[in-house]
Design goal:
Strand order of the largest sheet of chain A: 3-2-4-5-7-6-12
Helix content of chain A: 25-40%
Strand content of chain A: 15-25%
CATH class of the largest domain in chain A: Alpha Beta
Helix content of chain B: 25-40%
CATH architecture of the largest domain in chain B: 2-Layer Sandwich
Radius of gyration of chain B: 26 Å
Number of strands of chain B: 18
Distance between the termini of chain B: 69 Å
Number of domains of chain B: 3
Structural class of chain A: alpha/beta
Oligomer: heterodimer
CATH superfamily of the largest domain in chain B: Chloramphenicol acetyltransferase-like domain
Shape of chain A: globular
Largest sheet of chain A: 7 strands, mixed
CATH topology of the largest domain in chain A: Rossmann fold
CATH architecture of the largest domain in chain A: 3-Layer(aba) Sandwich
Distance between the termini of chain A: 45 Å
CATH topology of the largest domain in chain B: Chloramphenicol Acetyltransferase
Number of helices of chain B: 11
Number of strands of chain A: 14
Structural class of chain B: alpha+beta
Order of helices and strands of chain A: EHEHEHEHHEHEHEEEEHEEHEHEHH
Radius of gyration of chain A: 20 Å
Order of helices and strands of chain B: EEEEEEEEHHHHHHHEHHEEEEEEHEEEH
Largest interface: A-B, 7 and 10 residues
Strand order of the largest sheet of chain B: 9-18-17-16-12-15
Chain lengths: 339, 405
């Protein structure tokens, strides 16, 4: 029987994954700042709740009640720590760190507790927590609400990191993340929330650690992360009119990383361009280039290229913010540099 | 201060040369004027003499590297003297854009740290991608032979694939590619053999060549040689050959058939004022065509002397570039080897070549009587783009008349 497929927004796809997993497993619960919304506002308790600052969890508090959709105090260290503890003791919490830029105030809970417990207790404890967090520039939200920073978390052993680029991937990867027994950081780009795409209606799972080839080509491999996949696809489209066939590889999960798909694509095209909105030092971009340089050196016909944000915080000036984010033109330029 | 050894310019048209081999090892003693290294151009091999005495302190151009005229090849100095490679581009590099890509000489800094004694045998440095290097290795192609798609551009697998498709497989690749290699000697396809091959192939690819032939009565030619030879040889010590007589006759006849003494240039047909006659000389490993300059004005003695000297130099491998350039017409005589007739290939950029066979006495019908006559086949190959069949045949007709009477 064919799977029913509808067009949903990225936001709706995430909401559907949360809803279906909460229905399937009563141990799944949501917590975060305003994930229900309006709970403590006098006279507002009968109104429709906000469902998070950008409405991703809208409707879930009505469906599952305030015992499973928990508004927390503005204390990331407190509620992220509570989520890690709840996971270690048998629940499957999905905590929302509103903007990834706030990780500094709760890093001990993520890095020193959540990421290490299973390892330090010899596998006797598991920490099936998901931390959803918003990333990305282009929202005119200035330096403290616009970073990507998934490279920081990918660096840390014990954490899994997921950066979806399409509504269908967001649904399938989030469902898989919730069912995973390790802490998963799930990065949602703010500018993708309104992007529409076909999404399977029922249970939809995408195995963590499997890259997806978003466009096939044979001349240059472009590995792009999150929203940058769209930049790469736009560049590939314009380059095809120049006769350059670009393969766009979306790793989807950064840890674990699907090295085989990336390497086999590069072995085919002999050229690599990485597109990453994160800052360039000690980043996924450098890591992917290092992977290819060390494992596929003899397959390369050109030095690998990186298209990344500069090594600065995200600027507030709209002109400078637009300059900060990689564009299809910059990707195309990097592709041409490999030819 | 070390003395620089640079790529010499051996002829007006020479732009680059290839280091064939160093005759002195790095660090070895050299004497001013003594042979130092052998170089190859696309026309000849030549020995470069040491410009100073001392030791060959540094070799900067490995064997097989191809470099522009003026490129620094090595340094001669006192024993123990520091061999600092001069800063800045070489004169050639400064004036020729292709020098940067063609020069396999390492950067000064890199060469300074290279261990002494390795340069002569090491590979020239080539800008190539790792994948291109691996593919070349797998195909048995020497990466330094692969031309880049643009000057200074890194070689890619595309370049190696294109080269592999265009170039005949090397002996090494043939060994690898075939499951069973037929027994036999593998002669490297290089040097003069390769030059001959490329010239002749280019000739047939670019011209519309037609050969007209006729059997000529050469009673006059034979009589003339019989008459002149004894006195000639006694007076000059030179043997008077049929080729000398043919050069003499053909050179003067060409003044009346000037289109056959012409060259096709980009926008015009250049009709030569003078006849510079090329005479094909067979070598053990190839073929070379030294040129007798102004053959149309030279006496038979001068022609015979020039031809004898040039042929001896050709056999010894000592022809200068100016002795093989600038020919306007060529004669190829295979009569001495017993050939009757053949279709010679035009020597570019000339327009025509005359092939002559052996002289044979035959019964010929003359005015109803069978008489015995010496005959010779004449074959004129010409470029039909410049000359048509009738004028070419008329030239053979006129030549036959002169050789008969």
């Amino acid at each position: 029987m064919a799977v029913a497929v509808r067009t949903l927004s990225f936001r709706e796809a995430i909401n559907e994954a949360l809803s279906q997993e909460m229905e399937r497993d009563p141990s799944v619960l949501l917590m975060g700042e305003d994930v229900a919304g309006g709970a403590t506002v006098p006279g507002f308790d009968q109104e429709d709740a906000w469902g998070g600052v950008l409405g991703v969890t809208k409707g879930l508090v009505q469906k599952f009640g305030r015992d499973r959709v928990l508004d927390t105090p503005i204390s990331e260290s407190g509620y992220i720590g509570a989520a890690v503890g709840a996971a270690a003791t048998g629940l499957r919490p999905v905590a929302e760190l509103m903007f990834v830029d706030f990780f500094g105030v709760c890093m001990d809970q993520i890095f020193n507790q959540g990421a290490k417990l299973r390892y330090m207790f010899g596998g006797k404890a598991k920490v099936p927590v998901v931390i959803r967090t918003m990333i990305g520039a282009g929202f005119r939200a200035a330096g403290q609400h616009s970073g990507c920073h998934y490279s920081v978390f990918t660096h840390m052993p014990g954490l899994k990191t997921v950066v979806p680029s399409t509504p269908a991937d967001a649904k399938g990867l989030l469902a898989a993340a919730i069912r995973d027994d390790d802490p998963v950081l799930f990065f949602e780009h703010k500018l993708l929330y309104d992007v529409q795409g076909e999404v399977p209606a029922g249970e939809h799972l995408i195995e963590l650690g499997k890259a997806d080839i978003k466009r096939e080509g044979d001349r240059v491999t472009v590995v792009a992360i999150g929203r940058m996949v769209q930049m790469a696809l736009d560049a590939a489209e314009s380059l095809s009119s120049e006769g350059v066939s670009v393969e766009v590889v979306d790793p989807r999960t950064l840890s674990p990383l699907d090295e085989d798909t990336i390497l086999s694509s590069v072995r085919k095209t002999r050229r690599l361009v990485v597109v990453d909105e994160d800052n360039p030092r000690c980043s996924m971009a450098t890591d992917l280039v290092a992977l290819v340089a060390s494992r596929a050196f003899d397959d390369l016909d050109a030095p690998p290229q990186m298209v990344t944000a500069p090594h600065t915080p995200v600027p507030f000036s709209p002109i400078m913010e637009d300059f900060y984010v990689p564009t299809p033109e910059k990707v195309a330029e990097a592709v041409r540099a490999t030819l | 201060m070390p003395t620089e050894v640079r790529m010499p310019k051996l002829g007006m048209a020479m732009k680059k040369g290839k280091v064939k081999s160093w005759l002195v090892a790095e660090g070895g003693p050299v004497e001013k004027g003594a042979p130092l290294l052998e170089i190859m151009t696309d026309k000849i091999n030549a020995v470069v003499e040491a410009p100073a005495s001392g030791v060959l302190g540094k070799v900067l151009a490995a064997a097989n590297s191809e470099l522009p005229v003026g490129a620094l090849l090595g340094l001669i100095g006192e024993p123990g003297e520091a061999m600092n490679v001069p800063e800045g581009p070489t004169p050639a590099a400064a004036s020729e854009t292709s020098a940067a890509s063609a020069a396999p000489v390492a950067s000064p800094a890199a060469k300074e740290t290279a261990p002494v004694g390795t340069a002569a045998g090491s590979q020239p440095e080539v800008l190539a991608s790792p994948a291109a290097r691996r593919l070349a290795r797998d195909l048995g192609i020497e990466i330094s032979r692969v031309p880049p798609s643009a000057p200074g551009k890194r070689l890619t697998t595309d370049d190696v694939e294109a080269f592999a498709a265009s170039a005949p497989p090397s002996a090494a690749a043939a060994q690898q590619a075939l499951v069973e290699v037929p027994a036999g000697e593998a002669i490297p396809f290089e040097g003069i053999r390769r030059v001959v091959a490329e010239r002749l192939h280019e000739s047939l690819q670019t011209m519309a060549q037609v050969t007209v032939s006729r059997e000529a009565d050469v009673a006059g030619l034979v009589a003339r040689r019989g008459q002149l030879a004894p006195g000639f040889e006694a007076a000059t010590g030179l043997r008077l050959s049929y080729t000398d007589l043919l050069v003499d006759t053909v050179a003067r006849l060409l003044l009346e058939h000037r289109m056959l003494n012409s060259t096709l240039e980009d926008e015009c047909i250049r009709v030569a004022d003078a006849v510079h006659m090329g005479v094909a000389v067979a070598l053990e490993d190839g073929l070379i065509v030294p040129v007798i300059r102004d053959a149309h004005t030279k006496s038979l003695v001068e022609i015979a002397r020039d031809r004898t000297e040039l042929a001896a130099k050709a056999q010894a491998g000592g022809l200068g570039l100016d002795e093989i350039e600038g020919g306007t017409f060529t004669i190829s005589n295979l009569g001495a080897f017993g050939a009757d007739s053949f279709t010679p290939i035009v020597n570019p950029p000339q327009c025509a070549i005359l092939g002559v066979g052996r002289i044979v006495e035959k019964p010929v019908v003359v005015a109803g009587e069978v008489v015995v006559q010496p005959t010779m086949w004449l074959s004129l190959t010409f470029d039909h783009r410049l000359v048509d069949g009738a004028p070419a045949a008329r030239f053979l007709q006129a030549l036959s008349a002169r050789l008969a009477g």
